[in-house]
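Re: [ENG-882] Designed sequences occasionally contain unexpected residues at chain ends

Forwarding the minimal case from QA. Structure tokens:
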């Protein structure tokens, strides 16, 4: 009829508009069950959960006869012909009762159709043998399994600490750096996990040694009687290669060291006791070195009376009175029976065991004394001279002529008894004078000839003569100025 307008309205469009206005728009969601972890096997039917809401139910999966009110499950099959995981994005279309259509997308990870090889790993230390606190690199390599790898749970053996944290260096390897504070065989491990959660733990061992060291052992003991020898042997540890040199030394005067390889024979060269002196060694192979020391003692024979003679520490000049006193280790009183000083010295007796000496000439000076127990008459140091030395400074004037004096102990001696010869130098150049030769003569014929003795300190020569008679001990002294002096003394063998 006139004045009427006819409008055709599509019910589905109308419903859609009404839904939008009412906030009831058709939506859906789809995906694998949560228990699947988003992963499916190639060629195997997998359940896909579909949920719909909004619009006007019931709902239908497009192109299927599946009808549902809010949730349904359909089956999908995915394939993967490769050797690594494959991610597939799929779509489900849902239609409501008014014909309104919506789509929901989801992703699944499809495992390769072929079974992957077994996940494995290796852990290789470099070096496999090291010293305490040396850095060691650990290289872990993964193989097999599925997809990419994760490296974790680095564990070092007892005393181990991480220097550089475990980190990948490429798709199949990771590295770390560690060190150890203690010695021993250390077991270390690391965990490798592939992309589907499979994991394996691989391990390795390293041998840790201590730093290079050396120790000293004395045989038969660290204490021996004068006249006996102590053999000191060096024992090296943690050297690679073994030491090629052993250098022995001591700061104790009157001690002789006779080294041979990794051992040294130690003797008292002056025939006197020595208490608690050190012998040192330095062992080396060119790249490693270590040192050690050992305390040794030489004691006198049974009943030995140990004595010394000394003077107060001070600065002395020509003309000064220098006091010398003999003392026994036992504290008993002593009597000096013989006192020898250089020819420029004026000696004054100040007591049984003491002398004052004034020197006219500067330079290095030595005094010798024989002393005995005042109470028992036993001689000090088995009858050997007590020796002391000092330096006299010049208070003005020049040097005296070079001169020497010769002495022997145990004079006279019997057949096959050893004795010592001593030389005392005075005058000349005190900074550079020496005993050059020593001869022993009998009836004008030389029976012993020695050379190469030096400095103006006493020269001790061990001599044993098997023929009775009187022997002449002759010393020749020289200095750097070309001066020469000869002195001698007679020695009797009974």
């Amino acid at each position: 009829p006139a004045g009427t307008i006819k409008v055709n309205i599509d019910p589905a469009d109308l419903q859609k508009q009404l839904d939008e206005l009412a906030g009831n728009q058709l939506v859906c969601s789809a995906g694998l069950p949560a228990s699947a972890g988003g992963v499916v096997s190639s060629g195997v039917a997998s359940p896909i959960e579909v949920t719909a809401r909004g619009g006007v139910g019931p709902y239908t999966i497009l192109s299927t006869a599946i009808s549902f009110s809010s949730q349904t499950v359909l089956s999908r099959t995915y394939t993967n012909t490769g050797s690594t995981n494959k991610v597939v994005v799929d779509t489900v279309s849902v239609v409501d009762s008014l014909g309104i259509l919506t789509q929901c997308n989801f992703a699944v990870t499809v495992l390769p159709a072929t079974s992957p090889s077994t996940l494995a790993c290796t852990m290789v230390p470099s070096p496999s043998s090291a010293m305490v606190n040396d850095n060691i690199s650990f290289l872990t390599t993964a193989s097999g399994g599925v997809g990419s790898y994760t490296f974790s749970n680095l564990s070092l053996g007892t005393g181990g600490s991480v220097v550089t944290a475990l980190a990948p260096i490429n798709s199949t390897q990771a590295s770390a750096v560690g060190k150890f504070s203690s010695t021993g065989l250390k077991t270390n491990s690391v965990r490798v996990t592939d992309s589907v959660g499979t994991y394996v733990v691989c391990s390795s061992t390293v041998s840790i040694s201590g730093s290079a060291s050396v120790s000293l052992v004395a045989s038969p003991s660290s204490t021996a009687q004068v006249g006996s020898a102590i053999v000191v042997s060096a024992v090296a540890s943690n050297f690679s290669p073994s030491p090629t040199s052993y250098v022995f030394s001591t700061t104790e005067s009157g001690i002789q060291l006779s080294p041979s390889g990794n051992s040294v024979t130690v003797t008292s060269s002056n025939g006197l006791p020595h208490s608690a002196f050190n012998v040192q060694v330095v062992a080396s192979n060119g790249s490693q070195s270590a040192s050690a020391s050992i305390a040794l003692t030489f004691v006198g024979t049974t009943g030995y009376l140990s004595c010394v003679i000394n003077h107060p520490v001070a600065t002395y000049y020509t003309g000064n009175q220098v006091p010398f006193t003999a003392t026994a280790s036992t504290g008993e009183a002593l009597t000096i029976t013989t006192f020898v000083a250089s020819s420029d010295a004026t000696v004054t007796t100040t007591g049984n065991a003491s002398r004052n000496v004034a020197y006219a000439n500067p330079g290095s000076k030595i005094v010798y004394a024989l002393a005995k127990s005042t109470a028992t008459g036993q001689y000090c140091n088995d009858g050997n001279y007590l020796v002391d030395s000092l330096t006299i400074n010049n208070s003005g004037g020049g040097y005296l002529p070079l001169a020497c004096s010769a002495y022997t102990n145990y004079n006279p001696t019997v057949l096959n008894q050893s004795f010592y010869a001593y030389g005392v130098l005075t005058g000349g150049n005190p900074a550079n004078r020496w005993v050059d030769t020593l001869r022993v003569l009998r009836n004008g014929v030389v029976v012993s000839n020695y050379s190469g003795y030096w400095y103006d300190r006493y020269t001790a020569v061990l001599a044993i003569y098997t023929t009775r008679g009187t022997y002449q001990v002759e010393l020749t002294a020289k200095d750097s100025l070309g001066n020469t002096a000869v002195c001698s003394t007679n020695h009797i063998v009974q």
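QA comment: On inspection the terminal residues look reasonable. The chain has a mean pLDDT of 87. Proposing we downgrade this to a documentation issue.
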